[in-house]
Amino acid sequence: MGAVPSTPSLSGARPQDTAGYLIGSFVGEKSFPIGSDFWQKLLELPLNLHWPTHRVHEACKLFAQNNCNTRHLAKILIHLSWCLQECVSNSGALSEVYAKAVNAVYISSIFLKYLIENAQSNSIEEFHVSLNESEPAPNSFKTDQNIVSLVMHNVLNFIGSVEVSPNTYLLHQELLNFMLVAMSTQLLYGPAPGPTDMNPFIDAAMAQESSLVRLVVRRLLLNYIIRPRIPFNSASYPVFSGGSQPGVLQRVSSAAATFVLLPFNYLVSSTGDGPRNPLADISLHVLLILNYYRKSVVGDESLTDRSDDSATSDSLSKGKTYFSDNPYCKALENARDIEFDRVDIEGNAHSGSHVRLPFASLFDTLGMCLADETAVLLLYTLVHGNSDFLEYVLVRTDLDTLLMPILETLYNASKRTSNHIYILLIILLILSQDSSFNASIHKMVLPSIPWYQEHLLHRTSLGSLMVIILIRTVKYNLSKLRDLYLHTTCLATLANMAPHFHHLSAYASQRLVSLFYMLSRKYNKLAERIDDKMGKSGSFGQDSLAEDLSAELHIYTDFLRIVLEILNAILTYALPRNPEVIYAIMHRQEVFEPFKNHPRFSELIENIYMVLDFFNSRIDSQTHDGEWSVEKVLQLIIMNCRSWRVEGMKMFTQLYFSYEQESHPEEFFTPYIWRVALAHRGLSFNPSAINLFPVDLPIEASSRFALNFKDINMLML
């Protein structure tokens, strides 16, 4: 950074020189007391100096070397806390106060991020987020208080208590950026939380009062629902300075991209893929990270064996450790619709103990955004964890608002990540567990589906479209992903839906029978490979290939049986309502013939042939001149459905699949959410420091995670 004067002097200095001088002093060896006017000058001065990236890198390195003695990170976090306290306590606070807070949070984010991604130990002491005992401080400030807790309380208190307005928008956004940086310590550890993991800022967020937690969860969700836009009219946005008047925030052409001291484009790379709404986007990322955080705590027998109602542990025991409660997860699970004031059986209202949200607006917002993975994660989190929201979704008469974007995304599975597809399918499985949902989706008729290209779908029910897309997903998975769990989820959803099929379309019925044929071909190929192996060696053997083939054959045997049970459920419970299914089975009846004597399938196929025999005999008994047309055969099927009796069929227990989340969901969701957050926010983080998930980036793609300074123009205030 070069030599700097021993004390700041603003008289006669150009703003650019003063900016460089003050930042040089901030990262340098000299320690400025917490009460020094240096801090006011640093946070108040209008700065607009461009620094080259190598100079910023040098500043961060120098700061890391000197912070152990200067404790300047702790001090700027204290000043940030004081600015936020003033903003909260004085609703009419001057724009200068907000500007100081924005400067403080920018500077804090830049240097805290550098310390996190270059951390060498699992100790918070490495960050030196505390004051020296000899530090002179104002009488009102206790030097021994926990500064991490202080700043997180004030950050969360501002987010939860102060409305988003033209005056406060920028500060809200940058506080959320700060939270993302502060919580990025999770990237340093593996997906399974351990008792030695150091996440001081997110731990401090977990320790807040439940009333504040509810305010924060509500604000983050309202940001997502309302999607406030950054105001571009400087006359109504006093934080911006107009004309030639100097101000902390200079109005620049790129608006939200480069405002202040060390701009957000230092924290993010320039990918060109900006979010549709920056505040809504980062609010949801922060909420999801908070929601899925689990802290592993080492406890003695008295902690891990607690069984009384007052226990604060989730009792998710892993040996001698347990996971402490997550208040954000509980607040989201217990969120209620603002339209209904729930009253318990004794007539006691509980409006103050729950997050109150406009479920209607949340439902509509999710419907608009489900092409985005974070929206899908939020929808999953709500329908799985919040019974009130799930109930609300199931009683909506416009289920196409959610289902159409879900089905379109599944249709374009090749353009999506496997995790994205996985979560969407689980959402459909959860919804299919409700019989009213399975019935209602067949009552909604869609005039057309323009995005479906393989076949013209005209006046198709939502239920039929869902069947078509699920089967198409199985086919895609069979050829590309080969994920057995995706097969299972698709088939489980179809099985839940089957007894409730109502006037399934001809195309959906054809695809259902084709599903059996497609899986049977895979089954036959596996069986042939096993037979060939036995023929060559005289025995099947016990090598790894033989075991793999045998296990895969067993899996596809189960898949075929599920499809046969789906067909049986239709024929047993919904035959009169689905003549197109009968026609499709009759048209391809030869595909069932090879499995008539299979021990796992014979009883199920007997039922299918009982139906085939009934309708074949009715058609054979009809005298008809000329060719049988599809319409005439279908008309005959419809007519004979009235005389069909199910009594002769063998009855099987109706299949019903329910989704159960694994006992440690954070091991999947935490890495997934951070992957999405890094990609969407473009947050540049040293890839060699990431242990939360594997990082194997090609050279041409590495700029997204580039080490701090790749191709970034720094704007210094």
Automatic annotation (TrEMBL):
Q: Which InterPro entries match?
A: Dymeclin
Which superkingdom is the protein from?
Answer: Eukaryota
The cross-references to PANTHER family, in alphabetical order and at most eight, read: DYMECLIN
Supply one GO CC term from the record. Golgi apparatus
- Alphabetical keyword list: Lipoprotein, Myristate
**BP-aspect Gene Ontology terms:** Golgi organization
What family does the entry list? Belongs to the dymeclin family.
What protein name does the entry list? Dymeclin
Record field: transmembrane: none
